[in-house]
Structures are given as structure tokens and as C-alpha cells.
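hiii so um. not sure if this is the right channel but i have a protein structure encoded as C-alpha cells and i wanna go backwards to a sequence. like what aa goes where. can anyone help
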């Protein structure tokens, strides 16, 4: 294939601005997929993607298009996720392309992830083709959105393509704009073979399948390749392209997007963003931009049935090959048994992984309260990174603690500023400045502790803004904070599954809420049980679970009051002795209800 006739591009946008629907129309117009095989959200292969209406994984597809100039071009499209949790996938997709279509909803306008993704594209020095989508809607404000694109993104909107992924308006114009404006593949004259891994998946029969963009050199079956990040060598078994299903090919040449099947079986060897080169003609430097992904949220995942531990281990290992951002290490809990401490990019990422474990691997799992990585400084300037409350050093040894923050850009209607600022203040955040986007919308630039946005921040933001708010964030600096470890004691014994690290100001309310919830859920014993919240050995909240009543006076019919008193005193002594030696076993469903309620 003549490299000047190849165009590599992707579609970037905010969540639900119509990326996947537009991809469907492009596949139809280029006749890549026959009409009888066509279905909505064709590139979204997972049931979860269809149900939630979001793209989770990048999806490549190669299309042949005969342009107005009479030439036939090979267009390689990579559909990308829009949610902030999957921004690493977007950055890898952008690194594989020379241009992108920036999609903006004609009724919603420029939103948080629109700005974030446009900035990523500019940093990669890509050609940006602005597309105003959903122009067929009655609520479309095309001129207003054009002005937003120029004012907020600083991208000229005169040549923005007006389109509708639903009705097919402007699809030919988009294809022509890609052919004319997006440059031919770059870095093809580099003297050594290089291919960027932008995604990968595990196949039971073939092993690891790497999705690649070839920058220079050719790759074919039988070649011995080397992964530049870790030096792992392997032989290529098969190469091919996506149309949109995998189709074997003889070779992958410079500028092409396709897949490489190797002999690699260890799922941890292949890292997304790594560079593949030939073992006997090794490249000196990798394709720029590779970095290890840093998880931001941690949670314990345990099988409800302890016999499923090996099944869970295999399931997480296979998901980790598909997802470079998922990290996991084994851990044990006195209450929950054997499980894994998993790292995620955010809460949606965590929810998706858990749901995939349940569906794809038929596992019943329980996850603990999500937490972040804290920096704990102890005497002697010793630094400990803590992602699990049970690993926290003794309070007497701690000199100071630091927690991670995020820099958030929150787009909201101007009428919601007051309520939004109250929510930010409640979450211990600071609003650095407010920018006006247009007459109706403003952008709040804030600094917030990452721990505070984990559970309900996004839901409450959507409620306050009646669904019109959107947020994009990036990891900020660590700041010193007054944090403590909150323990829950049941009958004087700490339950590690309920331990958490909280800010001093919120410790009492959080502890009281947990104690009240446990009092409702725990079964009564033959003696009174104290449920306590403790910080550094000091009890800050308490609830008492009443004992099961037994009528010891039933056999005492009449007689002097002293006979009754004697029986009651005897019962009291027995209960006191039972409380000293009695054990309270917490049923599994109480753990599930508490952790689901808290998570």
C-alpha cells in the first residue's frame, strides 16, 4: 500500500456525544460492513458497553474509501472512550494517529472531557478536524457551539463539519476532511522497525493478541520480535488487520494498523504503550509517550465463596492483559479470607472491572471500601506508602501524613454556582478560580482531596446541576492533612474489613454512621454487644446491641421477692461471664450490606 494513501485518525469527544454512532455511519458509507451485518454500536463488542451506552475499550477498524479526487485511501479509525477514567486509553489511541475528529454535541456544547481530550490531541501535535454532531436535534445550537469551539478550545470553527451520526448528515464531508486535512503517516523513514501497542487482549487459543500501529519497518509471521520495555522476545505467529473483525494478512507495513499474535502466554509481559521491534534489527529508542499507568483508587476484591479464590486469580490476570491500568496484589483479611488488593483509575473503572468479573468469569465477589495511596512519614524520616488501612503504622510513630489531591475542571450552568461551591467546601476542596464559558455556563477550577470524590461526588454534582454538570480531573500534588485510622470494634475486637482512613473532622460522623448500621444488621447474642468506633485507642462513637431476652422467672411461681432477685442476679453473673469469653461472629451478608452501602 502506498503510504501517501493511508490516513490514521481517531474520534474524541465527551461521554455520550455520539462517537460510536458516528463510527457506525462511517462503516456503512465506506461499505466496510454489509448492511445485513450492521447493528447499532457495532464497535462496542462488550455487553456492558451496550448496556451503559459508553465505550470502555478502544476499537480499531480499517476502511477503504474512494475520495472525490478519484484515489482510494486506507482509513484506519480508532474509536476511543470518553470517560475521564479511561483517559490513558485515549492518549494511546492519539499516539497511534496523525489526526482526530473532535466531536461536539450541538445541543450540549463544549464539556469537560471535550477540553481535556482536545488538549491531549494538541500535546501530541495532531491535526484536529472539528465536527459539530447531532445538528438534526430540535435543541441544536450550531452557531452558539461554533463560537464555544473558538473561544474555549481556540480551534477555528469556520471549517467545522456539521453532521448527524443518527441520520447520516455530513458523513461524506467528514471522510473528505480526513483525506484532505490529516497528513500521511509520520516517522516511516526511521531506519529500524517499530510498532506501538495501543491495546491488547488475551485469547484462550492464541494467547496474547497485541493491537499495533506500525510506524516503520514491516512485520510478518515468522519474525522474531522484542518488547522494548522489558526485553521479552517472541516469534510472530500471525498478523492481520481489522475490518472490523480480525482478518489475517501477509504483512503489516509502515502506517498500517492491525494485530500481532505471538507465542507470549504470560499476560503481564505485554504492556499497553510499549514498542515492538525486531530482535535482530533492534530500534534504539521506542515510540515516544510510553509511561506506566498509575492507579488512583484501591479496593480489596474477595470471592464470596472461598473455593473460588483460584478462579478469581485467573480472571483478574486475564483482565489485566486487556487493561494496562489494572494492578493487583494478593492480600488476606481476618474477616474476608484470601483476596486481592486492586488498583483502578477511578470509580467507573472499578465498577466495570467488578462487573466483568461477575459476568465473564461467573464469580460472586465482594469489594471493600475504596481508598487511595497515602504518604505516611514516621520517626527517622521514614516514608511508607499506605493503600490499605490495615498497613498503617502505629499512631505514636507517625510524624505527618499526606494525601493525594486532584485538579478538577467542573463545567456547570451559571445558576448552580452557589450549591456547587457548598459541595466543594463540604468535600474539603478549594475553588481556585471561576471562568465564564458563555452566557449560560461557567467552569470551576478546583483543588480537591482525591479521597473525597470517590463515593458520591459525581452523583451529587449531577443532582445539583440537573444533569448538565460535567467534570474532568488530573492527579495533583500530595498535601499534608490531618488524617486518622478509624477502627470498628465489635465486642472489643477490631474488624479489619471496616477499617478506613478518614479526616479528623469527619471521623466521628463516619464512625457513628457505621456503628448505627452495624447495630441494625448484626444478629443479637445472649449478652449485650458493644459496637464502637475507635481512633488511636480512643472511643469516639458507640452503639449497644441488646441481648436476646430469656425469662428466667417463668419457673418461679409466687414466693418471696428475694427468690426472684436471686435468680435475676444469677442470670446477670452468667451474662457477665459469657461476655468475657463469648465471641461474636459477623455473618457474611452483614459485610456485604455494609460494604455495598458504604461503597
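sure thing!! here u go:
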Amino acid at each position: 500500500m502506498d503510504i501517501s494513501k493511508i490516513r490514521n485518525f481517531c474520534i474524541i469527544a465527551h461521554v455520550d456525544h455520539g462517537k460510536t454512532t458516528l463510527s457506525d455511519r462511517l462503516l456503512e458509507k465506506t461499505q466496510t460492513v454489509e448492511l445485513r451485518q450492521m447493528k447499532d454500536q457495532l464497535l462496542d463488542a462488550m455487553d456492558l458497553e451496550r448496556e451503559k451506552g459508553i465505550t470502555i475499550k478502544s476499537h480499531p477498524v480499517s476502511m477503504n474509501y474512494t475520495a472525490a479526487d478519484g484515489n482510494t485511501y486506507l482509513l484506519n479509525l480508532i474509536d476511543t472512550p470518553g470517560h475521564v477514567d479511561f483517559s490513558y486509553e485515549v492518549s494511546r489511541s492519539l499516539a497511534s494517529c496523525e489526526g482526530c475528529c473532535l466531536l461536539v454535541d450541538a445541543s450540549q456544547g463544549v464539556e469537560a472531557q471535550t477540553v481535556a481530550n482536545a488538549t491531549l490531541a494538541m500535546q501530541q501535535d495532531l491535526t484536529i478536524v472539528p465536527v459539530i454532531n447531532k445538528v438534526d436535534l430540535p435543541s441544536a445550537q450550531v452557531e452558539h457551539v461554533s463560537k464555544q469551539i473558538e473561544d474555549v478550545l481556540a480551534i477555528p470553527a469556520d471549517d467545522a463539519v456539521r453532521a448527524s451520526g443518527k441520520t447520516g448528515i455530513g458523513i461524506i464531508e467528514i471522510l473528505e476532511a480526513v483525506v484532505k486535512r490529516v497528513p500521511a503517516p509520520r516517522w516511516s523513514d526511521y531506519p529500524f522497525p517499530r510498532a506501538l501497542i495501543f491495546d491488547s487482549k488475551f485469547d484462550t487459543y492464541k494467547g496474547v493478541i497485541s493491537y499495533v500501529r506500525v510506524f516503520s519497518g514491516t512485520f510478518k509471521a515468522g519474525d522474531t520480535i522484542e518488547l522494548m520495555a522489558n526485553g521479552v522476545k517472541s516469534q510472530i505467529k500471525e498478523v492481520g488487520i481489522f475490518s472490523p473483525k480480525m482478518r489475517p494478512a501477509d504483512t503489516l507495513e509502515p502506517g498500517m494498523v492491525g494485530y500481532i499474535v505471538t507465542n507470549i502466554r504470560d499476560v503481564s509481559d505485554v504492556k499497553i504503550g510499549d514498542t515492538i521491534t525486531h530482535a535482530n534489527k533492534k530500534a534504539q529508542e521506542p515510540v515516544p509517550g510510553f509511561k506506566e499507568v498509575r492507579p488512583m483508587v484501591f479496593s480489596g476484591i474477595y470471592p464470596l465463596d472461598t473455593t473460588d479464590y483460584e478462579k478469581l486469580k485467573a480472571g483478574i490476570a486475564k483482565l489485566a492483559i486487556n487493561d494496562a491500568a489494572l494492578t493487583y496484589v494478593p492480600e488476606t483479611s481476618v474477616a474476608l479470607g484470601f483476596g486481592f488488593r486492586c488498583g483502578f483509575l477511578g470509580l467507573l473503572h472499578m465498577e466495570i472491572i467488578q462487573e466483568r468479573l461477575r459476568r465473564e468469569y461467573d464469580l460472586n465477589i465482594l469489594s471493600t471500601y475504596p481508598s487511595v495511596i497515602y504518604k505516611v512519614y514516621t520517626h527517622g524520616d521514614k516514608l511508607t506508602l499506605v493503600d490499605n488501612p490495615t498497613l498503617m503504622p502505629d499512631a505514636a510513630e507517625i510524624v505527618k501524613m499526606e494525601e493525594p489531591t486532584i485538579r478538577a475542571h467542573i463545567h456547570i450552568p451559571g445558576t448552580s454556582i452557589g450549591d456547587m461551591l457548598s459541595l466543594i467546601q463540604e468535600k474539603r476542596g478549594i475553588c481556585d478560580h471561576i471562568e465564564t464559558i458563555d452566557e449560560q455556563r461557567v467552569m470551576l477550577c478546583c483543588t480537591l482531596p482525591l479521597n473525597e470524590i470517590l463515593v458520591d461526588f459525581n452523583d451529587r454534582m449531577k443532582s445539583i446541576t440537573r444533569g448538565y454538570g460535567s467534570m474532568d480531573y488530573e492527579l495533583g500534588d500530595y498535601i499534608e492533612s490531618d488524617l486518622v485510622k478509624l477502627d470498628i470494634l465489635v465486642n472489643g475486637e477490631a474488624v479489619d474489613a471496616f477499617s478506613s482512613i478518614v479526616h479528623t473532622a469527619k471521623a466521628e460522623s463516619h464512625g457513628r454512621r457505621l456503628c448505627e448500621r452495624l447495630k441494625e444488621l448484626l444478629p443479637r447474642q445472649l449478652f449485650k454487644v458493644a459496637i464502637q468506633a475507635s481512633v488511636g485507642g480512643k472511643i469516639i462513637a458507640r452503639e449497644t446491641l441488646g441481648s436476646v431476652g430469656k425469662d428466667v422467672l417463668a419457673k418461679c411461681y409466687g414466693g418471696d421477692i428475694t427468690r426472684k432477685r436471686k435468680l435475676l442476679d444469677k442470670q446477670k453473673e452468667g451474662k457477665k461471664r459469657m461476655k468475657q469469653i463469648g465471641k461474636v461472629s459477623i455473618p457474611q451478608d452483614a459485610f456485604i450490606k455494609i460494604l455495598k452501602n458504604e461503597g
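oh and Residues 429 and 448 are 4 Å apart (CA to CA).
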